[in-house]
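Protocol step 4 of 6: record predicted structures for both targets in the notebook before any analysis. Target 1:
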Amino acid sequence: MELGCEKHLLSLIMESEVQVGNDIANVEAVRWLLKTQFDRNVVTHFDIQVHFTCSSFKLMKVIGNPSYYRQNMSELLFEHYHVPQVLYGIDALFSLHHNCSKKSENAMVLSFGHHTTHIIPVLNGRVDIENAKRISLGGNNITTYLQRLLQLKHPHLTAAVTLSRAEHLVHQHCYIAENYADELEKWAGVDYFDEHCRQVQLPYNMTSSGSVGSGVGKMDICFNIVKRVQESIAKKKQDTLADDEEKLQQLISIQELLEYEDEATFQESQFSDSELDDADYAEEGEEMEEIIAEFEREFKKAPEILFQPSIIGVEQAGVAETLEFVFSRYTKEQQSFLAQNVFVTGSPAQLPGVRERLCAELLAMRPFQSLFSVTLAMTVFFEELVSAGFGFCQK
């Protein structure tokens, strides 16, 4: 009986419908059940990859991809998909060839990925794999960090701030600051805060009609009445407390007046106390401005993790530090060739301020009056596929 039950359950599992990609109606409702074929940016779960039956697709190889997974992918392509031939290639190099075909012999390629960021030096037309570096941060980390920041700031909207909405906010509002420290100081100003503060309206879910909806409406009315009563009671208590404090201050002033010999000495003491009080209030105002400024830094704080991974506790060097380390591996002449063609590609490269930030970092790390150039990919979503298809046709 047990063996028969196991076979029956196995047959049910095999015959169950598997939904892939856009076939899933509500992703957020079943996100905790989703399975991916990727381990970061490497395909490792081929039992899940089998369910992807696209009419056509192109595969991009990552630097340092283990040969075991590449062998399994090739076997899957030939045995399951029946493809006639396969061309593997690195997407960042395809993008370099597509955008900078005339000056692609010497370049420092900075590839921002979904889970990782790669710095790939190309010298004399050949990729220097030994000096290529990888940072375990990418666009997915920006989205996840922004979601956590917003959930921490708005605990009552934890369920509403989903990963999909956080990703939409990254695409629409996030930017990379040219100088992160100076940007934080600007937000301390009230005028700058009021001008640049952004308000996002989350989708409103209407209550369903019927008996359930009417019951929910009655409960909302009751809650509103209770809330008004509580606010009225709190206001009365606050007014009473303010009156009591005023009377207490008057009694204290009368007591201090009795302690002094004449009224002139009493006035001098009151003047000095008021000066100290004003200074204390000024310090409190500065602290409040700092607190308010921190509440509206999410849209530039989330992308900053690419340059400062320590913000989220990752013990790795950022993009600027890693780029400087790669430059240090070459001679001055080779550094000059590489710095004159710093090519940036990948989806996070579309964030506003990427080029300005990299120019500022290169200006700080390169020698005085040395030349450098930063080029952004024009169309980061499909250019690798177009270039890869063109190269495949040529071959």
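Target 2:
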Amino acid sequence: MGKLTDKTKEQIIADYKAGVSQNQLAKNYKLSPATINKLCKNIPQENVEIVNTLVNTAIATNRALEGKTQIEVNSIERIVDEKTRNLLYFQNAALRNQKIADEMLEMSDKIADVEAHSRITARNKETIFGKEPQTIINNTNAQQTEVTEIRRTIVKLDK
């Protein structure tokens, strides 16, 4: 039997939350299944979906990088890390801005502040979720009864 420290307990619980079975944990940490069962009792395996998503992403990444040289792979990974870091920075900044705007709106009673809050919220939404494609604006005016068609004809004049 292995020694059970607080750090080991935390690691066992984290592994269990990530989807490792209790029997596998008992083998990995050289503990009895009963000890593992007591530690993991009433703890949900809440990170299983995250693990599965990351595994699928890693598989897709490996397939995408097949046939690339190590220099190309290193370059791609470096650029992805940099872009991810930048994107997270701006997303976190947008969330902070939104929190401040929400607090300011609570204290305000002016319509101009409400409009400013709306613009800030829209910009923050674009920062976090990306810009949405242009939408087609349909004229749904009920009184519109005729369709105007404009044709452009090019006429060549013979000299």
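Step 5 preliminary note on target 2. Residues 70-107 form the longest helix (38 residues). The two ends are 104 Å apart (CA to CA).
Proceed to step 6 after PI sign-off.
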